[in-house]
Amino acid sequence: MTDRRQFLRLGMTGLVLAGIPMGCARLSRPRKSEELLFSAADTVHGEHTLIGLNREGHLKARITVADRCHGGCQRPNAQEVLLFARRPGRHFYVIDLARGQLAATVEAISDHHFYGHGTFSPDGRYLYATENHAPSGEGFIGIYDALKGYRRTGQLAAGGIGPHELRMHPDGNTLVVALGGIQTHPDYRRIKLNLDTMAPALLLINRHTGEILQRHRPSHHQLSCRHLDISPGGIVIAGYQFQGPQWQTPPLIARLDTTNGEFGELDLGHELQPCLNNYIASIAVHPQLPLTAITAPRGNKLLVINHHNGKLARSVDLTDCAGVMVAGEDGFLVTTGSGTVQRLPADLSQLMQLQAMDLHWDNHLTAVTSL
Amino acid sequence: MAVSVRPLAIHFLAVSLASGSLASRADESRLRWHQDIAGGYRQLVDASSSLAEAATSYCAAPDNNRLSQVQHAWQAAFWSWQRVRFVDFGPIEHNSLAWQFQFWPDAKNLVASKVNHWLSQEGDLNSHSIAAASVAIQGFPALEYLLWDPRFQQTGQALPAERSCVLLTAISQHIVDNTDALASQWQAMAPFYESNERYTTATVQAAMTAIEVIRDRRLGAPMGLRGNDRRNPYQADAWRSETSLAAVRASLEGLQTLFLPGMNLELSMAGTPELQAKLTARFSETLANFDQLPDGMTALLAGEGYGKLQALYIDVELLEQLLTDDIATTLGIVRGFNASDGD
């Protein structure tokens, strides 16, 4: 008998994903491609897995790994998707999409760990991964050459402490980096060591020269800038996690127009803002629609904003919502810590539950096109 | 676009003014919890102040009697911390305060290396330098090392060596500063805590987590029940002072005194008096184990007293099941995977 967990009935309306790999440089959609969703997930028994689902809802890949993983990205022009161990992670995992199996495990160089996110150059050759140099606490962006078996061939200074998620700008030359500002050290696990002196930022960094082209500071030094996404037109939406008192409710969502450097924070109003519990998890900017989906798992809210005008478009209650990604014409897909996969259609009308699995989805989804 | 880059002062406590509501019945449990936890925090302030005073008076005129007073004061303050250790939300989250009070577990023995590092240095040493130092030296375990660590006692730096005394008083004072901040910020948070429904969930979840930590890490790990079969007293907290079990007792007693009354109000409002009675009895039965138990764990792990530890472990397990499976489920409280431990 087929295990129900191994045969995911996502339904025909389910995972009709558009050809936009969210974590990486974007590809034009080839014909006969298969749209997939990849995510890290922990089983109810605490086993760490990497899960891939295809559009028919079948399990395409289920790989057990040693670490709890976090973000991921597809390598452009290749049958590879990468998932990163969660900070302080020592590995990233390369999955061969054709076989649905682990192709390689790449270890961080000594004294460094990953923060859990990466992005590729548009040609798919160079991987950029956010890293901590533990002895100094300085953040770096490690550069890995995919043609040389992901050898680390260089690094860029990340402009401070705690670089977290990063994306390739549509110009192909600029990295957009969320600098969390929080110092941690593997000896102290995940303890935050510098809450008084944090200096978070949203950065644009030239990937060839390392030059910091723009640095935007959140309105409070304890607003840790963690996650972001960018539209084809260069609009960045970034999410914060506030490290200060819970009874303060500062803005948590930033908007940057990279074309003119206009930076601001969104005011969600006195009703909604306190409900988010000062924590944003994932961001997915829709490339065709002016809509950006944002998860706030501590507030059990899925938000959609219009990223052109910065206004709230929709707020939906969804317990422990975590990963979110664009699903083309079908709007957005969202996962929850309790194992469900939900779809919010492009008209934002109502959530539809596509699947409930016996596992905990981690914070991020990676949209993947299998050639 | 609607953009705001406002000073935080405007946001400050604006949300606590929510509707100027009448204290509905639903708020009663949070009123009680806030008040009980405030009492626990006040006790921690007092016990920490006594510890700092004892340290100062010992270092002014060291003798064995005063040393033993410092040790007793350390225990009282540490147990006061154990009583409120379950509260993992609110001002305790600021500046990693919980870690500052107790850096644990400490697999790399950073407490020892940081203490030795500070003792071998010449520079300024006072509560301000401690405030800027590693969390491993900011709290009770570093003091415990100075007061009890057997190997350290054999060195020339053992108390009352001058710099060790300076370190003893500086850390004690830093703990006092932190407890003062914690207690006053908890008071300031009252309207926000009491008017926000989500703190009912947060408080129950905090108790669930604390009991799991007792079962899995404070008992299960040293008992060899966590993967490897090796019993190891150094996996417990407070092993240097041989008070691992006394610390667990203080944590459970803190839950019984500071958490249970509010929980009972909540269960009473939910119309489930049978759960209320079960939980009250379960706490008493679990705590009764300690009548037969020593303060430390080492001897029980080595010898035939292990059965008593197993009995305690099983009672903690039953307590956890009652709270997580029956009570939380009845109240519709679910712990989120990403909500509690995202990134």
Q: Would you summarize the structure shown here?
A:
Chain A has one helix and 28 strands. Chain A has 371 residues and is mainly beta.
Write the layout of secondary structure elements.
The complex is a heterodimer of chains A (371) and B (343).
Chain A: E1 34-43, E2 48-53, E3 59-65, E4 69-75, E5 80-85, E6 91-96, E7 101-107, E8 112-120, E9 126-133, E10 138-145, E11 151-157, E12 163-168, E13 174-179, E14 201-206, E15 212-216, E16 223-230, E17 235-242, E18 253-257, E19 262-265, H1 269-272, E20 283-285, E21 291-296, E22 301-306, E23 311-317, E24 321-326, E25 332-336, E26 340-344, E27 352-356, E28 359-370
Antiparallel strand pairs in A: 1-2, 1-28, 2-3, 4-5, 5-6, 6-7, 8-9, 9-10, 10-11, 12-13, 13-14, 14-15, 16-17, 17-18, 18-19, 20-21, 21-22, 22-23, 24-25, 25-26, 26-27
Chain B: H1 8-11, H2 28-60, H3 64-84, H4 97-101, H5 110-119, H6 127-131, H7 140-148, H8 150-153, H9 162-188, H10 190-195, H11 198-220, H12 244-269, H13 273-288, H14 298-302, H15 306-331, H16 337-341
Helix pairs in contact in B: 2-3, 2-9, 2-12, 3-7, 3-12, 5-7, 7-9, 11-12, 11-15, 12-13, 13-15
